[in-house]
Design goal:
This protein has 19 helices and 18 strands. It is α+β, with helices and mostly antiparallel strands and about 700 residues long. It folds into four domains: about 140 residues, Thiol:disulfide interchange protein DsbD, N-terminal domain (Immunoglobulin-like, Sandwich); about 190 residues, no CATH class; about 120 residues, no CATH class; about 160 residues, Glutaredoxin (3-Layer(aba) Sandwich), CATH 3.40.30.10. The strands form four sheets. Strands 3, 4, 6, 7, 9 and 10 form a six-stranded antiparallel beta sheet that branches. A five-stranded antiparallel beta sheet has the order 5-8-2-1-11, with no helix packed on it. A five-stranded mixed beta sheet has the order 12-13-15-14-18, sandwiched between helices. Helix 3 runs antiparallel to helix 10. The radius of gyration is 30 Å and the shape is globular.
Amino acid sequence: MNAFHGMEFDQVDTYMIDKMLKKGLFFLILITGFFAQAQIHDPVKWESEVNQVSEDEYELVINAFIEDHWHLYSQELPKGGALPTVFIYEEAGEKYELLGDTKESESITEYDKVFEMDLTYFAYHATFTQNIKVTDSTLGSIKAKVEYQACDDETCIFDTKDLEFVINPAQVSEASEVATVEGDEIAEEELLNPEEKRSFWGIFIIAFLSGFAALLTPCVFPMIPMTVSFFTKQSKTRAAGIRNAIFYGISIIVIYVLLGSLVTLIFGADSLNALSTNVWFNLAFFVLLVVFAISFMGAFEIVLPSSWGTKIDSKADKGGLIGIFFMALALAIVSFSCTGPIVGTLLVEAASKGGTAPIIGMLGFSLAIALPFGLFAAFPGWMNTLPKSGGWLNTVKVTLGFLELALAFKFLSNADLVLQLHFLEREIFLAIWIAIFGMLALYLFGKIRLPHDSKEEHISVGRLITGLVALIFTIYLIPGLWGAPLKLISGFPPPMQYSESPDGLGAGKGNVSAGDQRLPEGAEYGPHDIVSFHDYEDGLAYARENDLPVLIDFTGHACVNCRKMEERVWSEPQILDVLKNEVVLVSLYVDDKRKLPESEQYISKTTGKEIESIGNKWSDFQISRYKANAQPYYVLIDHNEEKLIAPTAYEPDADEYYNWLKRGVENYKKEGTSAVKNLISAESESVFQ
C-alpha cells in the first residue's frame, strides 16, 4: 500500500496499474489524496507553557509528546550520530535574558541499533525548561524555534517547529498560562507503521515454527497418540471425541495466550521494549539461555514442582470440559522441561518488539502445539503415519540446545555493545558461532555423542540433511572473519565498525581509477564513486544535456538507513551499473545546516515555516512537491520534472529496488510521460466500462 503514497492519478505508471488490477485494488487511485497525506511523518507534538517564578523571572516549559516506536534525541550528542535537539530563542538579550542553559527531563542513554553508538534520547515524552529574566516590561511574548531529528527503526525525519510563550503580565495569570503550538496541518492521519506489522507477523511465524519444534521433543511428541486415544476411547461417539479433542487444543491455546498476557500485564507493554536494550536484562537472558541450552543437551532437566502436576491431575479426573482444561494445563506443566526454554526464548524475543508481541508469540506457539490434537482426533487413521518415538526425539532436543546457545551470545553481544567494552567484537562473535554450528554438524553426523543419546549404527536421512545445512552455514560464516558482509545474518553479529578490522583484511578505500574521470561542473563523487549532484537545478540541467532521467535521492548526513541503502543495495553490480550509466543522481541532504543567502531565504507556502538553510530548502521541496518528509526517499523524473514511476523509500530488497529502477528507466526510454498518461487513461476507461 505504501507504493501509492504521494501519487497523482495522471502520474501512475502502467506497471503500478497492472499490479493494482491484479490485486483488485484499482479503486485506490481514486483516494490518492488520503495516501498523499500518509507519507508525511509528524511523530513529535510540541506544546509550550509559561510559569511565572518571580516578578521578572519566568520559566519557559516545552513538552514534547513522542509517538510509539519513535525517539527524539537529546541536546547533547556525540559527533557522527543523530542530530541533537536545538532551541533557538529569538531576540534573546534585547527584552529578556536567558538564565543558564535549557534543561531537559530524564533521558535514556543506550546503544542505538540504528546509529550503532551510545546515544541519549527520549521516548514517549520529554520536557525542556528555560529560565529567563524580563528586562523590558513591554515584552508581550517570546518566539522560539526547535530544530530536531526523530527516528524509528526504518526512517528518520528532520524538522523544525515554531514556539511562542506569552509573557505580558496583563494577560498571563500569576500561576501560568499555556500557549499550545499547533503542528503543521499537513498530516492528520496516524497509520500503523508497516515495519511494526511485519515484526508482529515475524514473531507469529517464528513462534508457530517453534511450536512445531517443541512438538518433536521427548516431552510432547509421545503425548499426541496417548491423548488422542484417550479422547476417542472415552467419548461415546466419534463426534464427541473430536469435540473434546478440539476443546483440549483450544485450552492449550488459552493457557499459553494467558501466559503471554500475564507477562505483558506485569511488565507493561512499553517497558518490555525498553528492557530489551538494558544491559542487565541482556546479561540475565544470556545466562538463562545458556542454562536452557545445557539442559537441552542433557546435563540436567528443568522441571516444575511435582506437587503442581499432582494437584492438576486431580482436577483433570473430574471430567467434563473443566477436566479437559486441566488436562491441557497438566500437559503444559509435564512438558515444561522441553517447552519452557523455547517459551522463555520466545517471550524474550517478543519483549524486544514491545506492545502485544508476547501475546502474539504465545498464540503462534500454542496454535502449533494444539493443531495435531484436533487433526488426529478428527482423522485417527493419520496416527499410523506418525514416526515411532525413539532416539531421534533427543536429537531434536539437543539441536535446539545448540540453537539456544548460539542465540545466547546475541544477548551478550547487545550488552557489550551498549557498554562499548569491545570484549565481544565481530570476529570473536563469528568465531563462537562457527564453533557452535561446527559442533552441531559433527553431532548430527554422529561424530560426538551426549548423555541421553542412544547408540545408532547409522544416521537417518533427515539427520544427514540437517547436518549438511549446519555444515554449509558454518562454512558460510568463515569469510566473515575477513570482512565478508554476511547479509544472511545481518543484525545478529556486531556491526562491521565494531571489529578489530572494520574494513576487512585487504579492503581498499574507494576506487583508485575514479579520479581519472572528469567530473561535470557542480558534481562530486558519491558512494561507490557514483557521480552525484547536490543541487537540483544543476543535476536537472546535466540530465537534459545528456538525455538521461533524474534520480532524486532525498537523504541526510545522519540518516543511517540511507547509508544502509548505499552500502547494501547500491553496491549490487546491476544496481551500481544503472546508477552510474543510466540515471543522473541528485542527492539532496535535508539536514544540511549551512545557511542560505538572505536573498534566497523564504517562507514556505506549504508549511508556513521560515526556510533558512540548505537542508530546510530540500526538506520543503520534498514536502511540497512529493508530500513526503522521511528519508531515504527516491524519485525518478524526466526532463519535464514528471514522475516516471511511483516514488519508493527504504527498500532493503536489492531485487525489488533494481526492478523499480529499471521500470522507471524503461518508461523514460520507451514511453515518455505522455505515453504513460495515455496508457493509464486507456486502462482506466476499460476498467470502468
